[in-house]
Amino acid sequence: MIWLNPAALVALVAVAAPILVHILVQRRAERFPFPTLRFLKPTRLAAIRRRVLEDVPLLAVRVAILVAAVIALAGPLIVTAARRQAWERRLVRAVVSEGARAFSSSAREPRERATEDPPRFQREGGQASGASDLSDAIRRAVAWLDNAPPARRELVIASPLAIGSVTAADIAGIPADIGVRFERSTTTLPQTRTVPFGRLLTANGPVDREVMLSGSQTSVSASAAAVERDSWPIEIVAPPEDRADVDAAKAAVLTERVWAPPAERRANLVVLARDGAAPQPAQVRTPWIADAIARIAGDADLRNAAARLPGGMTGASVARQPWQTIAAAADGRPVAVAAAAGDRLLVASSAPARDLVTPLLMRSIANALAPAPDVRSAEVVPIADAVLAAWSRPSSLPAAPRIGTVDEDDRRWLWAAVLLLLAVETLMRRARRRPASDERALVEHGDTTRVA
């Protein structure tokens, strides 16, 4: 037996309720007419509290009602041989495809989800239909399989299976009881493919790059791009005495070359004077600004260079929201903080303009505005058959089905028992009231006259 919702068994503590009611309930004594009290000796009044249980059969029925209801909520499921064989005969399959219509089906039995409109997990032309790549489509397919009824589950990945389209991390994220099978689609990978590889900002102007993939070889070519006005994405504000050092830092960054961001992504860098106040920031509400701040904060070179400085900013305002620390000095105080300024990224730095932190911060900001392009989708080399064979595995039944996926369990019998016990409890209560009412009626009809 397995429990589909074992946490409900905690409610068994409610069994104490009817027992306490039977113990603590106060019942009024019934009044009986008596002709005279002259022959009874007077005694002291004493309070008598009942400590024993009465109506034990009725109490047992009420406790049984609660126990049966709690067990029904816990979802008992007796895994018989016939039930397991029925699950084994089922096969729920999700197909993730690239460049073709994908489908998910569950066959072998008419009650399966094959009769429903199955979801599609598809990636086409480097952009997924509702997903960013095959990895995301695999995750959505696994989530759909988790909601399938108890059965053997299988995930089929049908695509050209180029290197990088599916990784070992994607396979590791698939539960062990879900089978994995690969099918190479009829679409063949080209022998050679040339794709854009982003634009760089250099000391000699912007440069466009292309990458050519030919078999196992990769080559990159660069060509001068049309000179655009204001191609440098960072507007730098610094004291006049630091302007020469700031220009030198910018030239050093362009010599090393950085990625050119889209035209709508810009940043303001404020190099603070000694004991200068930071500009007024705004709350970050634009996704790309939040992503850029996270990328700058993860720059190891910037963090290591800032940690060499003995002290950071002393103002209390930079330690509060919306400012976020992206680099800290040796004393733990921030050297550089980031926030938003309208539709721009705002960065404030207390590092000296001639210190290594300044060019590293410029480089990190520029690269954070324009993440490096990903050319994995253009790969022309397929994943080796030996690797696919190592990733493949057969399907198996899940260890324990979830309460929302079981189409037939044993809770209905317990709920039927609860209804039956409620009927029994009602009959027992009526039977307890009938003798008392009959005796009261007998007294009212004149039996008191027999006592003299």
Please tell me about this protein's structure.
The protein has helices spanning 16-24, 56-74, 81-89, 134-146, 168-172, 243-256, 287-297, 300-307, 357-369, 385-391, 411-444; strands at 2-3, 76-77, 91-98, 104-107, 121-124, 127-129, 152-159, 178-184, 192-202, 205-214, 217-224, 234-237, 258-259, 267-271, 324-328, 334-341, 344-349. It is an alpha/beta fold. It has three domains: 2-78 and 410-450, no CATH class; 92-189 and 383-391; 232-369, no CATH class. The strands form four sheets. Strands 3, 4, 5, 6, 7 and 8 form a six-stranded mixed beta sheet that branches. A hairpin with a 2-residue loop joins strand 9 and strand 10 (205-214). The relative contact order is 0.13.
State the separation between the terminal residues, measured CA to CA.
68 Å
Estimate the mean pLDDT confidence. Answer: 80
Per DSSP, the total helix count is 11
Q: Work out the count of structural domains.
A: 3
Unreliable sequence segments: 99-120, 122-132, 447-452
Oligomerization category of the chains in this entry: single chain
- By helix and strand content, what is the structural category? alpha/beta
Alpha-carbon Rg, integer: 39 Å
Q: What is the overall shape?
A: elongated
Largest sheet, described in full? 6 strands, mixed
Helix proportion range = 25-40%
* Number of E strands: 17
What order do the helices and strands follow?
A: EHHEHEEEEHEHEEEEEHEEHHEEEHHH
Report strand %.
15-25%
